[in-house]
Amino acid sequence: MIIVTGAAGFIASNLIKKLNSEGFNHIIAVDKFDNADKNKNLEGLKIQEKVERDVFFNWLEKQDPKMIEFIFHLGARTDTTEFDKELLSQLNTEYSKKIWLKCIEMQIPLVYASSAATYGLGELGYDDDESKIPHLKPLNPYGVSKNEFDIWALNQKVKPFYWTGLKFFNVYGPGEYHKGRMASVILHAYRQISESGKMKLFRSHNPEFKDGEQMRDFVFVNDVVDVMIWLMHHRKNSGIYNLGSGKARTFLDLVKAVFKSMKMKEDISFIDTPEDIRDKYQYFTEANMEKLKSIGYPKDFTSLEEGVDQYLQNIKK
After folding, report:
1. DSSP string spanning 198-219?
2. Each residue of 214-261: pLDDT tens digit?
3. Is 235 annotated to bind ligand?
């Protein structure tokens, strides 16, 4: 069995789809299955059992550890505008600690989701140097909750025999349709352009960046899934790793790629960044991917233009 938490979510459902394609069909899907739109991500996938998030640890107690091959812990409260610190601590930090301890007790290898939100404004850069992690300054409670678990994990004297934390950058691709405001700019762009023929981007409130030239490391979900499955097979070099494309691109680049894929004339304007996120807005992120490459990860990452086109072809289907 392979356990995937957050199973109905965007990244996890893509992971299960790829695992199925490689012959892994004994999937234990863990989530809070209360969102009909989100649950559509699991339609057609081969899943052995669905387990509610709140009873997962009771379920786990009854299992033979020898039957569990791997845990991918991708479940989390991922809303960067969530300010209920207690909720974020409970779902993102404390729940992850319980999974970590069970992986030690039951000798199960673990890959878990961290986040590039831990880097804050990038004052210390975007290097996955573990010595810098205690000094990072996330901009929101979500990033804090993820960073707190990373710090806790690094400080543990006893660890799972294999474990990896992945700092996801701006992941995009099929399966994020349920995410509302938290969906990628690509999905928002496709919807906005489909409805109006136009796209509005956030204006820059930082004199160092022109409007639309704010930069992000956009990474295609297929690449993220490939890395996770490679780590499952690799099972060496435990630690915390960046997972982005390694190349920052502007929002203008992204939206132009959407217009091109939709075969429509560009029409881009700018609006003020909402005040509730303006002082917590990242103007630049770029994953240093040398650490993952140094342990032997062999694949190249999908270009933004290619990834956008693949994603939009999927949406059209």
Report:
1. -EEEEPP-STTS-TT--EE-EE
2. 999 999 999 999 999 999 999 999 999 999 999 999 999 999 999 999
3. no
Please tell me whether 170 is known to bind a ligand: yes
Whether 80 contacts 180, CB under 8 Å = no
Q: How far apart are CA 61 and CA 106, in angstroms?
A: 10
Secondary structure class of 168 (helix, strand, coil):
strand
Residue 47 Cα distances to 16, 19, 24, 135, 286, angstroms = 8, 10, 9, 40, 35
Among the listed residues 142, 172, 190, 311, the single catalytic one is 142
Angle value at C-alpha 57, between 156 and 176, nearest 5 degrees: 90
pTM above 0.85, yes or no: yes
Question: What residues pair up with 215 in beta bridges, in sequence order?
Answer: 250, 284
- Type of residue numbered 49: E
Active site residue 179: yes
Distance CA 218, CA 265 (A): 23
| Residue 26 annotated as binding site | no
- Amino acid symbol at 276: D
Which of 50, 159, 179, 247 is catalytic? The answer is 179
Q: In whole angstroms, what is the distance from residue 194 CA to residue 165 CA?
A: 37
Cα–chain center distance at 113? 7
Residue 159 is among the residues annotated as catalytic for this protein: no
Give all domains of the chain, ordered by start, each with its CATH number: 2-172+218-246+283-302 (3.40.50.720), 180-215+248-278 (no CATH)
CA distance 68 to 22: 17
**Through-space distance between the first and last CA atoms of the chain, rounded to whole angstroms:** 32
Q: Is 191 annotated as ligand-binding?
A: no
b/e map 50-86, b = 16+ CB within 10 Å? ebebeebeeebeeeeeeebebbbbbbbbbbbebeeee
